[in-house]
Amino acid sequence: MSKIFSKIWQTGTLTEAPPAAEEIETLGKEVKRAIEQRLSRSLAIRQVDAGSCNACELEIHALVNPYYDISRFGIHFVASPRHADLLLVTGPVSRHMETALRRTWRAMANPRFVIASGDCACNGGEFSGNYATCGGVSRVIPVDLHLTGCPPTPNDLMRGILALMRKEQPQ
Amino acid sequence: MSRFDWLPGFIATLAEERVAILHSDPNRLAPAHCLLLDAEDWGGGARVASASGFRWAGLWGDQIGDRLRIYTVLAHNGDYLVLMTEVSLQSPVLASHPPYFPAANRLERHLHDLLGVNFKEHPDARRWTRHCAWAEDVYPLRSDFPVGGNSTKQRSSDVGYPFERILGNGVNEIPLGPVHGDITEPGHFRFQAAGEEVLSLEARLGYTHKGIEKIAVGRDASGLARLAGRVSGDSTVAHTWAACMAMERAAGVDVPPRALHLRALFAECERIANHLNDIGGICNTVGFAFAQQQFGRLREQLLRTNLTAFGHRLLMDVIMPGGVYRDLPVQWESIITPQLSTLSRELEDLLDIIDDHSSLKDRLIDTGSLNAEMAQMLGVTGYVGKASGQDFDVRRDHGYAPYDGLEMQSPCRTQGDVAARLQIRADEIRASLNLIDRLIYSLPIGPIAADWPQSVHSSEGLAVVEGWRGEIISFIRFDEDGRVARFFPLDPSWFSLPALEHLVLGNNLPDFAICNKSVNISYSGQDL
Q1: Which domains, from first to last, does chain A contain?
Q2: Does B356 sit within 8 Å of A53, measured CB to CB?
Q3: ipTM value for the complex
Q4: Which end of chain B is more exposed for a tag (fewer CB within 10 A), N or C?
């Protein structure tokens, strides 16, 4: 155990050290304020890969690493769509995921938000206009915010969530 | 041992077994050797190859007018042999290879679903890549199938897929996916379990099928490189490199030595970043969150270095046909060198802590074991193979530039469990750090890209590279206008998925998460 504690001690708190983290900190605080106003201090995200190449998932995963650590702002990922406020969808929506995505969305309670994350989710990206894809999330379920990038970086994702929280409540 | 010294012996054995070789061609897909067989002898060729100890490494088809040309790749001591045959579009029937090579099972089903080749006496005639998005009797890769498909109306989900069931007292069936509880790719797993013990596991993929093979047709070289970089996002460097190498061989383009070194540098960075992610992930699945935070930290630092040095965190689109887009930054000594030395030091600290943690080791040792015999039969490469006694590395054994000029070390272990797969990753990170050091210090001076030729006529190319997950094969055919007529990227996930289904047997259900993480399949890479 002593080695673990010593490593943790040596590592310190990363979120304050690098210069890029200042931006994250500001962004995070804004997100937190928005979440406090809109969603009683917590935002639960259900992520669905609707045919992405898995690069988007890698960057979403990075949101929980010590540099970004989004859970400190009240944002967390949940397993069930029934617990989720936000559906974070990646990929062009392959036809084989179309039904699963729609069902996941239907399972969510109101108010519910949808972010289409990444170029593929926005308009099909590299995979638009072919027999196997729907060409974007908005062709299948209503989308509140489109977030471009291939893949969107953790900072982009944070900005996207903030932008969504500032938007009006969806009908 | 020289290249292909086994070939005359193999050809003689084929002749003894009355398998007729119509044509033997060392140049067509060089450095692989091509043998054209009669369609009647397709099964016979596989039988002889299986008896001669080949590894079955891949399969794809290509429509040429009213004929279908089928390619199978066999590997032997780092050499690649391609068996080819042709069948007519009207009656595309061939003998099936799984009776001799179990690894061929799903790729044959994929080829049937997309191109309509019927394999006689296939042990499993169920659909694989096709769900319900197109009808059973149409084949998307045929030239008469429109890119946009025949119908855009909503399709029902993949209902009625006949999973194999185990019936009996106390046996329960557990469906999992395609939408999982974690941030992960979509796939379906069907467990048959008795209490906690897994009796069988059957995977059902195809959910991320996005028509990659179809939309590759008609692209130019750089458009194809972009697409190849999105076959599997975590292997973007390796897939782009393989596709570019195949295109360069087809077009006869010589890549400048500096570009080759830089490609290898990107590939090793990609390997390290993914292995760091996996080591942390494996530890986290058994509740050792400390490791995930620490390895996640190291990974994030590396991704930031990638961004500063080469312009993209995951190194997407840094390789182009004929070379690379990004050169080593002039201030590399202040950007890359300190990062790598810190990484190297911290890695040892953390591995030491993992090694000290007996409760962690208790969960990893003897969990999800795959023995050497099974690994060989399933044809697995990469860390899954290397942890189970398959001492094979494309960089070392097949030898492609720039690795052929560097002394390559590749780790191999025999325990075959989750702990061994974790250790192999650690060994590979160490080897890659060492390689990066040598690649930078021996970086040749010169241009970083060759001009892409104005005209490339009807030609084919095949390339094999060692991605971080294992062997990646890429095939390209250009049409007479220099546009891509066929692209097939083969991800090692095709082979590690059956290995996962096997190695989880007899383990308890919750350990599936560790087994799965330790194998880490790319669904996107195999759904295409």
Answers
A1: 16-166 (3.40.50.12280)
A2: no
A3: 0.91
A4: N
